[in-house]
TrEMBL record:
One of its GO terms (molecular function) is dioxygenase activity. InterPro entries: Glyas_Bleomycin-R_OHBP_Dase (IPR029068), Glyas_Fos-R_dOase_dom (IPR004360), VOC_core (IPR037523). The keyword Oxidoreductase applies. Keywords: Dioxygenase, Oxidoreductase. It comes from Tropicimonas isoalkanivorans. This is Catechol 2,3-dioxygenase. SUPFAM superfamilies: Glyoxalase/Bleomycin resistance protein/Dihydroxybiphenyl dioxygenase. The keyword Oxidoreductase applies. Residues 1-126 form the VOC domain.
Length: 130
């Protein structure tokens, strides 16, 4: 089981604002901010999460990465839709509108958005429709 994940971004402020908006519908929020001074010159970091623990981190101080794919769990299909709308409004680029992806499994409902650095960020719900 993965405890947390993180990667470098090109502009910490832009990325913070994007992720704060995009992840809010999923109940994921900024939980911790670490300044470059606090890390001894190893970049600033922002930790997002829930339940009193950050588990998704972005940071400066290194070359930004691209090509990362991170999928966030959504409890409902409506939350996937809300993630997509929020991410697009926050400056994301469409990489797959909300919908079923039966090639993965019959109930796979996901949406894909590229973040400001071109990383593929997804929200996915695996629950069947009631």
């Amino acid at each position: 089981m993965i405890d947390h994940i993180g990667f470098a971004v090109s502009d910490i402020s832009t990325a913070r604002d994007f992720y704060a908006a995009a992840l809010a519908p999923l109940g994921i929020e900024v939980m911790m901010e670490v300044t470059e001074e606090m890390t001894g010159g190893h970049g600033a970091h922002v930790g997002f999460g829930g339940a009193d623990k950050p588990y998704f981190w972005i940071g400066s101080g290194r070359t930004a990465v691209t090509g990362v794919h991170v999928a966030f769990a959504a409890q409902t299909r409506e939350l996937v839709d809300a993630f997509y709308a929020a991410a697009m409004a926050a400056g994301g680029t469409d990489n797959g509108a909300p919908g079923l992806r039966p090639e993965y499994h019959p109930n796979y409902y996901g949406a894909f958005v590229l973040d400001p650095d071109g990383n593929n960020i997804e929200a996915v719900c695996h629950a069947p429709v009631d």
